[in-house]
Design goal:
mainly beta, single chain, 221 residues
Length: 221
Amino acid sequence: MSKITWDGAEQKIYETGVDHGVFYPQNTDGTYGKGVAWNGLTAVNESPSGAEPNEKYADNILYAVLRSAEKYEATIEAFTYPDEFAACDGTAEIAAGVLIGGQTRKAFGFCFRTKIGAASAGMDKGYKLHLVYGLTAKPSEKNYETVNEDPDSITFSWEVTSTPEALDGYQPVSHIVIDSTKADATKLAALEAKLYGDASSEPTLPKPSEVATMMTAATEP
């Protein structure tokens, strides 16, 4: 047996930053196409909704509390976005460099990383890999301002909502998080080879069931 301790060097854990954003267009069959880097990513603000209590009474007492379905929602902020994302932002290119808005918004997948820091290792203890599925984006506000003595770049922002995907044995999934400080390093490397591509394959977003199979498979002796 051991006594609980607080604030040891390895216990002072925190998360910070956002990087390695990748955009994956969703095909009509539900799979995801070739991923492309999302450069200029500045923030991903997650704001899930749902899970509201619905209280049921019987025999003059609180009998049960039922919870509504939970929904993944977030806001993506960036200085720029991949050309391939335009179709997900309601834009179509009718000729080279000629864009029209107000079109049907296509669904997409997205992955990004957040850093894990610790008092003993700074911001380089590890990272969390976030995989998000079935996203659609709302129209975003764009503020164009004159250049002045204090110039600033435009920051684009999109509110996104997920349609969750099936995963055997669990409720449908919108968001998978993998902690590099705990996950099997070999399995994580294989997953990242799929996400980011390698010498033999294009980058793509595997379905939740494939991720689960990859990360839970028995380790070879």
